[in-house]
Amino acid sequence: MAQYFSVHPDNPQRRLVHQTVDIIRQGGIVVLPTDSSYALACHIGDKRALDNIRRIRQLSDKHNFTLLCKDLTQISNFTKIGNDAFRLIKSLTPGAFTFILNATKEVPKRLQHPKKKTIGIRIPNNIFIQQILDELDEPLFSSTLILPDNNDEAETDPYEIREKLEHELDLIIDFGIIESQETTMISCIDNQIEITRQGVGDAPMLG
Q1: CATH class (in words) of the domain with range 3-200
Q2: Reduced to 3 states, what is the DSSP secondary structure of residue 194?
Q3: pTM value?
Q4: Sign (positive/negative) of CA torsion 20, 47, 117, 152?
Q5: By the 8 A CB rule, do 155 and 83 touch?
């Protein structure tokens, strides 16, 4: 049975930040708010939790997953990032962007695209997830909370998430209704930079 924390959207309670990080470190699967949707998340090194997220979402091993990172230093540890990509990410984050980059050996193979050896990276503009990442001091594995029968629409209401998944999860964070929006996806592979999906994030320099 999942725990359920109601978090203040402007001033998250520190004790709930601490408790959330403890649950993640113990291998828990949590529902966290980002700036574009609710997401399933777990510790980057926890295979059991990752496998359970795959099962909940009914995903194949070819699905592109994302690491939530707190800053560019973390991104540099887990990806091969060129100067142009570094400057671009610095100018656009935090925000509703997903950057596709070549993964380093620090990224577990089970998180990488099986053929391309790439990984998605995000620095979300959400105060609660920023505090979680700051205290955890390492990236979080994440996947947008889209259930198999929901036509690619992410879940928006934490009460409905609890009704559907409380027996599958360890923690649900209630951050209010978050209307589902796609991030803008930017490929930064092999120093070739291009928008591969236009979402809510605006990157006018890539026109």
Answers
A1: alpha beta
A2: strand
A3: 0.93
A4: negative
A5: no
Helices (H) and strands (E) in the chain, counts: 6, 11
Closest CA to 99 of 113, 112, 88: 88
Res 42 pLDDT > 90: yes
In angstroms, the Cα distances linking 171 to 9, 22, 132, 158 are 17, 11, 14, 11
Average pLDDT over residues 113-137: 91
Domain borders along the chain are 3-200
How far from the centroid of its chain's Cα atoms is residue 63's Cα? 14
CA distance 194 to 186: 6
pLDDT one-digit tens code per residue, 89-122: 999 999 999 999 998 888 877 776 667 788 999 9
Q: 117 in the Ramachandran plot: left (φ > 0), alpha (ψ -120 to 50) or beta? A: left
Type of residue found at 117: K
Which residues share a beta bridge with 79? 103
